[in-house]
Amino acid sequence: MSIILGIDPGSRITGYGVIRQQGLHLEYLGSGAIRTEVADLPNRLKRIYAGVSEIITQFQPDMFAIEEVFLAKNASSALKLGQARGTAIVAAMNHDLPVFEYAARRVKQTVTGIGSADKSQVQAMVTKLLRLSATPQADAADALAIAITHAHTIKYAHQITQTPLGKQTQALLQSRYSRGRFRLKAE
């Protein structure tokens, strides 16, 4: 059994979603948004840190999954998003949580089957997958989708490594790591 906290970072609204994974079953535990209704960025980051820390204390997750930064047209917005994301990651690391990152396209592909799905499609599928009685708001649904993506990723990774070929592949990859870096060896 694992409790997974998913975070959809934003400098003004940071969505969060918490699920419990037990085998193939996913259970909704909570979701919402951290709203930073202040003008200056340092105080917004402070609120994000405090909010993520409070959520971690409340739900006691085992894992932390967050959306990767995507290339934005506006450099200033991308930098602010990166700072909000970094703040959430620091909160997770200060609570000794392992951090996992997922591209937005992969999250959409996992949850809806379409990498270019829009927010309403993600909301609908999250509602269906978690058997929710109401549709979560967009930022919370995105965060839940990130948590669901992580749950599926660890489930399939575990299944693959239990096969004979998976065990051989895992051993081969581990033998090629040196000081945290993957090294290709000439055979």
Automatic annotation (TrEMBL):
Q: Which of UniProt's keywords are assigned here?
A: Cytoplasm, DNA damage, DNA recombination, DNA repair, DNA-binding, Endonuclease, Hydrolase, Magnesium, Metal-binding, Nuclease
Any single biological process term in GO: DNA recombination
Reactions this protein catalyses = Endonucleolytic cleavage at a junction such as a reciprocal single-stranded crossover between two homologous DNA duplexes (Holliday junction)
| Residues annotated to bind Mg(2+) 1 | 8, 139
**Can you say what this protein is called?**
Crossover junction endodeoxyribonuclease RuvC
Q: Which Gene3D superfamilies match?
A: Ribonuclease H-like superfamily/Ribonuclease H
The record ties this protein, via Pfam families, to: RuvC (PF02075)
**Where is it located?**
Cytoplasm
Cofactor, free-text remark = Binds 2 Mg(2+) ion per subunit.
Q: What class of enzyme is it?
A: hydrolase
Q: What highest taxon heads this organism's lineage?
A: Bacteria
Q: Would you tell me the Gene Ontology cellular component terms?
A: cytoplasm; Holliday junction resolvase complex
Query: Subunit structure, per the record?
Result: Homodimer which binds Holliday junction (HJ) DNA. The HJ becomes 2-fold symmetrical on binding to RuvC with unstacked arms; it has a different conformation from HJ DNA in complex with RuvA. In the full resolvosome a probable DNA-RuvA(4)-RuvB(12)-RuvC(2) complex forms which resolves the HJ.
What organism, scientifically named, is this protein from? Actinobacillus delphinicola
Q: Which cofactors does it use?
A: Mg(2+)
Q: What is its EC number?
A: 3.1.21.10
Q: What does the UniProt function comment say about this protein?
A: The RuvA-RuvB-RuvC complex processes Holliday junction (HJ) DNA during genetic recombination and DNA repair. Endonuclease that resolves HJ intermediates. Cleaves cruciform DNA by making single-stranded nicks across the HJ at symmetrical positions within the homologous arms, yielding a 5'-phosphate and a 3'-hydroxyl group; requires a central core of homology in the junction. The consensus cleavage sequence is 5'-(A/T)TT(C/G)-3'. Cleavage occurs on the 3'-side of the TT dinucleotide at the point of strand exchange.
Chief location = cytoplasm
Task: Write out the residues that bind Mg(2+) 2.
Answer: 67
